[in-house]
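A common beginner's mistake is to predict each chain separately and then try to dock the pieces by hand. The better habit, illustrated here, is to supply every component at once so that their relative placement is modeled jointly.
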Amino acid sequence: MITTTTTRSSFLSVEPQNSIPIPDLKKGIEDEMKGDCAKYVNQLLDAVAKNTRVDRSKLTLSDIFSQSKLNILPPRGRPGSIRIGGGEATGSISAGTATINIYQMYQSVFDLQHLYVLQAFHETIHLSASSGAYTDEQLANAAFGLLTPEEQKKNKLPNPPANASAYDRADAFSHYWDGLLTTHCK
Amino acid sequence: MILRVLFTASCFLMLCVGARAQEKGWRGIVPLRSTREDVERLLGPSSDRGYGVTYILKDQSVFFEYSSCHRCDDKENCFNVPEYTVIRIAVSLVVKPRISNLGVDKKKFKKERNPNLPDYWYYTNAEEGIVYEVLNDDLVMSTTFQAALEDYKSLKCVYAAK
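With all components supplied together, the output reads:
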């Protein structure tokens, strides 16, 4: 069941008309999971399950999204800036605690509504583990393994130093697999 | 007699250092030091000729990332090592151990929450290049062996700013 929570504080901190409206995310995910995108995502989830020794959930992505609690949180960043909202995934689908947090984006000259779908899609892939979640680093490693050697040369994995902050480390790997995902899923 | 004592002492020291060196990395495979040949000698040849190879063992999976650069021959993100040198190793056990059972010296590790997955924590020992991804501050979901900070600094290729 989708629970959309738009907190009171979101409306206290930003005028509703300044944030981009949220589209039908479940339909958006179902529309993504077709053709080449569906094939790629299934390959990615099979690979990450093999690498991590954590089985993937038997549920479809659409069902995982439906069974996750969805929180739409106020935009981050300053008004007037184009801000990629971003998101987080917590909990586990098997424990019934899966939660997706999506940060709203400010209105801009571009149509960024579809980015909400891609964000929800990204977080749902994290929650596709039968327990816990697949991390960005695990998904990046799996995505790298699906490439041909020539593609790997052109799409090297990030190599943050071991003293990188958690933010830099997580983001480096997140952007990596997300970039490869969006070559298959528009 | 003194020479004999010195010889014995130096042998003991060499054994200790050797043993300590073997403890680094995963089963003696050390990022930026070991090669694909070393991995294949340990685990057998892989039919995958790419730069990211996973070995599925009985109790764990081990992912090796090899350098696709030969030294600094490519324009970005290379280390000054030969092609097919191990860059990073990610290990996931079938039975996930508890961080408290690993005997980790927490003074040597920095603990930070993963901002994208708030249930996950990083335990990082930068000096040795070890990163644990820990679920709910309890279960170790994966262990990454990467370049020790000193090696990283000395071997990371430096490029002119774009």
